[in-house]
Amino acid sequence: MNEIIKVDNLCRDFKVGEEVVHALRNITFTINKGEFITIMGASGSGKSTLLNILGCLDVATSGEYYLDGVSVRKMDRNKRATLRNRKIGFVFQSYNLLPKTTAIENVELPLLYNKNITSTQSRQKSIEALTEVGLADRLYHRSNQMSGGQQQRVAIARALVNDPVIILADEATGNLDSRTSYEILALFQKLHKEGKTIIFVTHNPEIASFSGRTMVLKDGRVIHDTPNMKIASAKAVLDTLPVEEEEEDIARHIV
Amino acid sequence: MRYSNLIKIALKALANNKTRALLTMLGIIIGIMSVIVILALGSGAKESIKDQIGTMGSSDMIMIMPYMGQEGGVTQSASNMQSLKREDYESLLNDAKFLKAVSPVVTTGGQAISGSNNTPTTMYGVSPSYLGIRNINVSSGAIFGDDDVSRATKVCLLGRTVADNLFPDGEDPLGKTIRFNSTPMKVVGLLESKGASSVGQDQDDMIIAPFTTVQKRFLAINHLHSIYASTVSEEYTNEAMAEIKEILRRNHKILEGNDDDFQLMSMEEVMGTIDSVTGLLTTLLACIAGISLLVGGIGIMNIMYVSVTERIKEIGLRMSIGAKGIHILIQFLIEAVIISLLGGLIGIILGWAVSAIAGLFLDMNTVIQPSSVIISFAICTLTGIFFGWYPAKKAANLNPIDAIRYE
Ligand SMILES: Nc1ncnc2c1ncn2[C@@H]1O[C@H](COP(=O)(O)OP(=O)(O)O)[C@@H](O)[C@H]1O
Ligand SMILES: [Mg+2]
Question: CA–CA distance from B230 to each of A228, B79, B94 (Å)?
Fold first, then answer.
């Protein structure tokens, strides 16, 4: 089966006092295995709300949501927790690493909540994931000893480690400078090339050109959903930027 | 989820916040320490009081005295005060099956003199079996015999204090003749030292002589001041007391329904009273220690609560990567229990050290019972679970989206 995500007439209402906020209104789309999709929209358009539902952190007020062929609507809290643990990888704007904890321990975290995985396996998988994001030489660095870009790489490794069916990134470059942003985008493009399915939420229109599909939300509705034929290479953009040794240097000095 | 992983997670969380963990532990450390110290000192005090009481006489001792009345200070009739007679002693000696030794006691105060030395002291008129009843040993010479009793001979044994006062130059008193209230008495033996009693009385300040001698030559009386006896075995104290009562009531021709003109007291009762007094004291102090433990527990709850608030984002992250509510709950409970147990362990070690030092200063043998250690650990675990539960539950019930967005 090729359909990883299928949402049908999805609505999400929030009650704020007497009023009802319609954060999502009748959203319908499907995402296939191996897609890299950017969800754009102004602040408050409902991007995070949608991503939370897709990530099984939240449930829709009405409408259906199938993840990897399974209906999420009827699941209870615990079933959704297990689903998140096995099938979803989250990347947040503010990294959300555990403080004073090494890179490898942060990456191992999702596997600690999976009883089928032994500690040897989890060590092995975490090293693989950190190697994948280019931090093979930073396994035992603590989160507070790393630059923002490195921290986000650790967070991406953590999202990869459970081999999820989909990676959900909410403003993953929002806290980073433009060069580091392109580095992270290049990493996502590399992961996509290797077959990962990625949903990348951003309010920055420039980023849309690096993915194969762009969806635009406005007031909780999908107003555009178009394929992108000319996918730009983040790595190519990176090569045109002047090389800044600074950040790497700072990172090295902190270490 | 492997529970070993949760323990690992909890340990890491604690290691990342050592100061906070230590501060949380403080209440438990102090609480458990005071429980251990109080229980150790309590049982140590009980032991040393019992030891001292033991010097009064063996634990199978029974004292028989004339009835003194319930109201202190009321003058008793002369006949009541003189209710114990030599015949009573002899009946007890011959008829009581539950007694292994009986001795009459008459006492008189006076001045003991030897050469130019003199000292005020008390002479105890007794029978030879008195020494066994009171746990007194003869250090040199020998106790007088039954014929000395029947002939009321003028022989005596000196307690250490009296001997030291009368013969300060280290002369051997044995075989010498001293005078007590101007009556010459031959010293036939010396008593081993017993030290001060539990009430501070010098138990070596005594002279022992045949009771007949004291009755006839010093007091000119026919009655006895008291009778001391010891039972064949401690378990038979009640039977022995009943038997004594029966024999004395028969001797004194007391009609049924009338009150005794004598009273009995057993060493066992004395010990029992001491036990209940020190027990009450220990319970009281343990309650105070318990309250400090409660305060320690509330401290845990307090800091756990703060810690949950501080770590809302971490909890949100854990949930978003697949932790269930129960995992968060157990993680926080494990943290609370580890803190309590670690605090308890430190408290036990400190408590042991403090009671050992206190025992050294108070010159008593402090005993830490294994039961108080086990109870302490049980209390710690329960404290951790009980006071950790509410904050842990709060953490577990957080909504993952709100938690991860929390700033
Ligand atoms: N928990 C909530 N309670 C009430 N309103 C909410 C809640 N979450 C989001 N909203 C509202 O839903 C709308 C969409 O929010 P969000 O999905 O965060 O937007 P975006 O991520 O695109 O900036 C906004 O109007 C926001 O105020
Ligand atoms: Mg948002």
Answer: 110, 26, 14
Q: What is the pTM of this model?
A: 0.72
Amino acid residing at A121: Q
SS3 content of chain B, % helix, strand, coil (to 5): 60, 20, 25
Cβ atoms of A44 and A230 within 8 Å: the answer is: no
pLDDT tens, A221-242? 999 999 999 999 999 999 998 8
Mutation target vs B (from A113, A120, A154; most B CBs, 10 A cutoff): A113
| Structural domains of chain A, with CATH | 35-55+93-254 (3.40.50.300)
Task: Enter the ipTM.
Answer: 0.91
Which residues of chain B have a Cβ shorter than 8 Å from any chain A Cβ? 1-2, 5, 8-9, 12, 16, 313-314, 316-327, 400-401, 404
Count how many domains chain B has: 2
Q: Which two tokens stand for residue A155?
A: 């967070």
CA B24-B26-B31 angle, to 5 degrees, is 120
> Is A246 a residue whose pLDDT tops 70?
no
CA distance A73 to B347: 52
DSSP calls for A135-162: -GGGTT-BGGGS-HHHHHHHHHHHHHTT
